Every structure is written in structure tokens, then in C-alpha cells.
Amino acid sequence: MEYPRLIEFPAANKSVFLFGPRLTGKTYLLKKRFSDCRYYDLLKSDTFLRLVQRPSILREELATLKEGQRVIIDEIQKFPQLLDEIHGLIEDKHISFIITGSSARKLRRGGVNLLGGRARILNLHPLVSAEIGMVHLERLLLFGSLPAIYTSEEPIQDLHAYCGTYLQEEIAAESAVRKLDAFSRFLRSAALFSGQQINYEAWASDAAVPARTVREYFYLLSDTLIGETLEPWRRGKKRKAAATGKFYFFDIGVRNALANIYHLAPGTAEYGKAFEHFIYQEVRAFLDYTGDFRPLTFWRTTEHLEVDFIIGDDVAIEVKSVSIPDKRNLKGLHAIQEEHTFKHRILVCFAPEPRQVDSIEILPYQEFLNRLWNKAY
Question: Are 126 and 146 in contact (CB under 8 A)?
């Protein structure tokens, strides 16, 4: 089944970096939307070798293109030095490029030419509710929403193959870690603790690696687009905020596969974590796709008061997998209003109908997602 993707590209005369992990659908999307563009796939050995041997071939092959025409370079991390030629073509020929990557590690390190701000950065995420339409929530919470996995008849097998591909191709190929067995143990620990505050010492002990190595591994996960660390919201007036961030994988299905989770029962802690992760993915994708630069953070105090997600200084979101929320579920949203005046304080849950308690919006998750994607926040 084909799903419409919400990501929007700038005008034809603007160049773009399009980042996203493998299987988010970058190549398929570009071939559908820009079928008439010149296309270079650096995963193909003949294309890669031709350009590696003499990068100036790119300039020669594009010499006849007219100003404003687009060229697609797929998987630039395989040969980031090609960006020097691309830079020259943008300047001299006014050709625009769409440059994709499933890892930003080699582009962020080693002084690689990032085109001096001449290209916008876009991020492609797994499928979101506004693209899917009628979400099969139980399937999504367990297997995630990578396009090929969401529709797969064998999602468990495909997820395990995908996680293996990441270890072998994205990590090993970049020579980012010396011991894949240690990194594999760390990945499982990171998956088990996903959505929780990072505790380097505890996670290092669980993975049997030094704490300093765990810190390096988290940078690696960010660079290879496997996950993101949310920073604490620190603008409160009264209470001291948490010192460390909390980590989320880019897709809940990948997280479950790495943690060896094959079943989720409503009402359990694991189900609640998966539901929170689902809302995280929706909010993160919404901010990226709409060009909303408000930071996504979370609030947790040393007194263990907590709100799951903060958008800028405007929206506080708590996520609970309950149908009849009680006062305990609203505790963090009540407390954070003493720190700052938020336009919206929202509890996302399984309530049958929207309602309001003490200016807190209690919303069924479907209603929240509908308002989110209609830019109500």
C-alpha cells in the first residue's frame, strides 16, 4: 500500500539535504516526486567507483543541465568528498541538488563541506498518523511505522533483519566502534531504557562497558539517526530541573526488536512506554515537517514531578495509556503551571471523549493527533 508523505520540499532553485534512517522511504519518495531528475545512487558500486576515481566526472556529466534543474545524490555519506563538486555546481551552474543520507556522522566530522548553508536540512520519519489515516494502533505500537515494516506480513523477521543491517552496514561500515558485541549489548540496554532519563553509569553496567564508552555510543546513535536525546526543559521558576536528557529511538518497532519485545498487553508498563514513544514520534515528525523550530524537551524535577513533552514554552503534554485518568495523572501538568504559563496543558490518553479539568485538556489520542496535524498548537 502506498501512503502520501507529508514532507514538503522547497522551491526548485533551492538545494536540500534529506536525512532519514534506512527504510524510511527516501529513495522511493524522491523517485515518485522527482522522476525526471538526474539521479546518482552511491550505493550502486558502478556509480560509486566512477565518482570516487574522478569526482570531476559529476561536473562533466551535468555540464548540459540548465539553470534551476535538480539533481539527486542518494546516500552521500558513502562519499562525502563529492560535496566539493556539488558546491561548485551550485555556485557556477546554479543547479539545485537533493542530497540524501542515512547517517550524518561523516558529514558532521572531519571538516566535510556542508555547502556553507546553501542547502536546507529536511528529515524524513517513519509513517505518521496523518499519512496512514486509520492507524492500527496495536500493530504500530509493537512493530513501528517504517513503511516496509508496517505493511509487512512478517514484521518480526523484517525488523530483526533491519536491526542487523544497522549493526553491520551503518555502524561497522563507518568504523565507528571496535567491538560490535559490546555495541550490540549497549543497543539492547538503550532499547530497554528508552524513554527514561539517561544514567550513564547504570546503563554502562548493564551493557558491561565503561561509562565513557556509553557516552560515545549515544553520540553515535544520534549521528547515525538511530535516536535522539531530548534535553530537559529548564525555564522553571521554582523547582530544579533534571540534569540529564532522555533518549528515544527513531522508531518504536526498532526499539522493540532490539529489546526483544514481541508482545504488548494493554495496562502494562511496557504498553504505556510504547504509547508514549508513539506520541513522541508524532510530535517530532510534526515539528520537522511543518518547519516548526520550537525545541522539543521534557520536564522532570529532582522531586520526580514530570511532564513527558514540552513544545517550546507553549505546550505541555503528558501521555498516559489510561481511559479514566485520575488526579495522579494530572499531577505534573498542575505543577508545571506554577513554573510557567503554558497556552496548552494536555493529557493524551484513551478517554472516550475530550474534556477539560482545571484548564487541562484531556484528549483521546485520536483527537490530539487530529489537532496536532491541523496545527492547533
Answer: yes
Residues 6 or more apart from 31 whose CB is under 8 A from it? Answer: 39
- The list of the chain residues with pLDDT below 50 reads none
Amino acid in the structure at residue 269: A
Residue 356 cell numbers, joined? 477539560
Q: What is the pLDDT of residue 174?
A: 57
Contact assessment for residue 97 and residue 15, using Cβ atoms and an 8 Å cutoff: yes
What pLDDT was estimated at residue 114? Answer: 64
**Buried/exposed 239-257: b ≥16 CB within 10 Å, e otherwise:** eebbeebbbbbbbbbbbbb
The Cα-based distances of 373 to 131, 170, 290, 310 in angstroms read: 10, 32, 9, 17
- Return the pLDDT at 230: 96
Question: Where do runs of H (alpha helix) occur along the chain?
Answer: 26-33, 45-53, 57-61, 83-93, 105-108, 129-132, 137-143, 147-150, 155-165, 180-192, 200-207, 211-223, 252-258, 269-289, 327-336, 365-373
Q: What is the pTM of this model?
A: 0.93
- Cell numbers for 334: 498542575
Q: How far is CA 86 from CA 78, 181, 339, in A?
A: 15, 38, 48
Cβ(160)–Cβ(270) under 8 Å? Answer: no
Residue 17 and residue 114: Cα distance in Å, rounded? Answer: 9
CA–CA gap between residue 169 and residue 192 (Å, rounded): 23
What the block records as the C-alpha cell of 153 is 506480513
Q: Between vectors from CA 43 to CA 191 and to CA 227, what angle results, nearest 5°? A: 20
- Cα separation, 330 vs 352, whole angstroms: 17
CA angle in degrees (0–180, nearest 5) for 246-146-377: 55
What number of residues does the chain have? 377
Phi and psi of 214, rounded to 5°?
Answer: -60, -40
* All cell numbers assigned to 174: 563507518
330 half-sphere exposure, CB direction, 13 A CA radius:
16
Cell of 371: 489537532
* Ramachandran region, residue 25 (left: φ > 0; alpha: ψ -120 to 50; beta: rest): left
Residue type, 122: L
What single letter denotes the amino acid at residue 215?
Answer: R
